[in-house]
Each structure stands twice: as structure tokens, then as C-alpha cells.
Amino acid sequence: MPAYVKYVDVTKCDGCRACMVACKNWNDLPAEETEFMGSAQSHPKVTADTWNVLEYIEHENSKGGLDYLFRHSSCFHCKDAACEKVCPENAISYTEFGSVVIDHEKCVGCGYCVQNCPFEVISLKEYKDKNGKEYRKAHKCTMCTDRLEEGMQPACVTTCHTGAMEFGGKEEMIQKAEKRVQEIKDRYPNAMVYNPPGVGGTHTVYVLAEKPSVYGLPENPKVPTSAVLWKDYAQPLGKMMIGATTMGVLGMFVSSRLFNKGKQDEDQHDEEGGGSNE
Question: Which residues of this UniProt protein bind [4Fe-4S] cluster 2 (predicted)?
Fold first, then answer.
């Protein structure tokens, strides 16, 4: 199955926040109390209970004028995801649609995914079991994978009334983004497609009116070297070593059993032979 992309054109967004409401409703996420931020923005960033946030940015453009920029902020669903690499429990995986999802049955709340996400879109949520013991689970946008499996589109996409978000095949959406950048270059000279190669590209691709840093995004995000070493080298080597060690121990056990059995048979034979000589 071909990979899919959520296409976000920030130049068409009017800041209505319908995407936030749709996400909350579909995923049954609770409301959060937040402090007044002095602007229309309701949350400072995504959290374990708010998987996408509409960001409002005041920016002085190249002509000295003031622009209000908006950005739908949620998980980027990296093709080469740092969160997936650092998870020690293999609780994070890729789906056939390109989305990156968390298996909460396997998640132990270690927080490695939170620490290593270059976009800071994963958070830990506190829970209590029936005995009052506290534990944590990692949460983030799933790109509505449950909807995709039923042939539907992400909830945020379906509710966007300006056409700022679309969902479709990867190649089609990237071509659409590149074409749109050329259309808006006169108004936004710094316009660009944000699909960072340092994380293998993403399954949420943006048309940005300004440089990524203006939106609080890293210019060139990369998977941490430590994550690459851990997932691609240390873990496979460790499994090989564990496998070799296990086989060695098993071999010693079998050899010991055979040796001891042979010795026992020999002793028994000697005893029987000795008895006949008497």
C-alpha cells in the first residue's frame, strides 16, 4: 500500500481551531485548563490530552509589515522516527499508512520518546491503577489511524473549511505542496515545503510562508546519533550476543547432562562389574 501524507498549507489557514475541536471529539480527549496567553492561542503546545494545537505567530515581514501566521501543530509522523528508534519496549511502530503509533499495552512510560522527538510532540500522561499506584503512558497524534483503516480521512482534515489541509498519496501531496510554493512566492519570498530529509521525510508535509524557525520548528531536524546507534547497531548486536550466550549456556547444559550421564553409566558399570568379581 502506498504511503499517505497529510498536507498542510499554512497560508490558507484562518485560525478557526476547528481541527483542534475535531481531534478532541474523535479521540475523546478531555478538556485542559490553560493560562491566558495574551493571544488567541489556547495552548502553548501539544500535550498528552491535546494532540494538535493551532499556533498563532506575530511576525514582521520583509516589508516591515506585521503578519499573523497560523500553524496546525501535531505529530509529523517521521519516516525515520527517533521515538521508534529509542523505545526499549518496541511500543512504537509504523503503520501501512505511514503513521507512527504507540501501543499502550507495551509502553512503560520511560519517556525516552519524549526526550528524543525533534519536534516535541510526545507527552507522558499520569494514571493510577486500582491500588492507587501511579504509572505513565506516552501519548500523541495518531493521524487518526483508526479512521484510515475504515477508509476515512483524519478528523482534522475533514473539518478544515478553508482547504488548508488535505490527505492523499505521498507523491500527489508533495507535488501539490511544491506547486503551491511557486504560486505564493511573490507574496511570501521565503515560502518553502517543509519535509525535512534528516528524519527521512515526514507524513505531515507543510507549505510554510516563512522559514521554519519563524514557526518554532527546527531548520534541519535529524534523528539523534545516539538513537541510530542504539536501534540500528546496539540492539541487533545485543540480541545476537544474547542469542549466542543462550546457545552457549544451553550447549553447556546439554554437554553437562551428557557428561554426567556418561559418568553415571560408567560408575554404574564399574559397580556392577566389581560385584561380579567378588
Answer: 23, 141, 144, 156
